[in-house]
Specification:
This protein has 238 residues and is an alpha/beta fold. The protein has one domain: NAD(P)-binding Rossmann-like Domain (Rossmann fold), CATH 3.40.50.720. Strands 3-2-1-4-5-6-7 form a seven-stranded parallel β-sheet, with helices on both faces. α2 links the parallel β2 and β3.
């Protein structure tokens, strides 16, 4: 994997930061995407470069198609290629669905679904040409449970749509050697937590738990694994 380049969206902090740092232990270089937090993104880059790997930070507004495509173009210009795309960017909105104005609905759908679509469209031509690629979309643990979500409705709709997109792209790109999968975290230590939760595993998840799943799906060993949603939730809400 030392000849592979990864790009992680939303990787200046939180889960994205951990994903970038963990991927840097197995690949040749990692692109770090941010929108506002330049200093934090540059700190991630410094840590990666200290390990001898390539890294660079890229500012991009992923709320629009041009910003996403420009991100991919600049990353490919910097590294020569992007072999692994992790679509981690996508903030959650916690608010009763009936109180969410139309512009907030549209934004949550854009940043959680369309941003991933545009980034995928940007990297796929190069992946097809090289006949190797890994795309991992970050979902959430209940993405396949089509039930009522009173306070995260647009987020849940966007992530369910992202799962359908993941599986659709997986079928379409399999002949080109490109795999497309989703990793869906459950309740994470640093995340938003409900008042009451009962996790069979007996603990909250960690960034490391999620990153381990992403590293597997990014690897050469996962070349025959595509169209899957890997839930990392310790048995929560099964």
């Amino acid at each position: 994997m030392k000849d592979k380049i990864a790009l992680v969206t939303g990787s200046s902090r939180g889960l994205g930061r951990d994903l970038a740092l963990r991927l840097a232990t197995v690949v040749g270089g990692v692109g770090v995407h941010y929108f506002r937090e330049k200093e934090k993104a540059e700190d991630v880059v410094r840590q990666i470069r200290q390990t001898g790997r390539q890294s660079a930070a890229f500012r991009a507004d992923l709320e629009n198609e041009s910003g996403a495509l420009d991100l991919i173009r600049r990353a490919e210009a910097e590294f020569g290629q992007v072999d692994i795309l992790v679509n981690n960017f996508g903030p959650i909105l916690v608010k009763p669905w009936q109180d969410i104005p139309s512009e907030e609905w549209e934004r949550i759908l854009r940043v959680n679904l369309l941003s991933a679509l545009h980034c995928m469209r940007g990297v796929l031509p190069g992946m097809r040409e090289r006949r190797w690629g890994r795309i991992i979309n970050i979902g959430y643990s209940r993405v396949e449970q089509l039930t009522a979500f009173q306070t995260i409705t647009p987020y849940a709709i966007a992530k369910t749509g992202l799962l359908i997109l993941t599986r659709t792209a997986a079928v379409a790109e399999a002949p080109a050697g490109v795999t497309v999968n989703m990793v869906s975290p459950g309740l994470i230590e640093e995340g938003i937590l409900p008042k009451n939760h009962n996790i069979p595993a007996g603990r909250l998840g960690t960034f490391e738990d999620v990153s381990a799943a992403v590293l597997f799906l990014s690897s050469a060993d996962a070349g025959y694994v595509t169209g899957n949603n890997l839930v990392v939730a310790g048995g929560w809400k099964l």
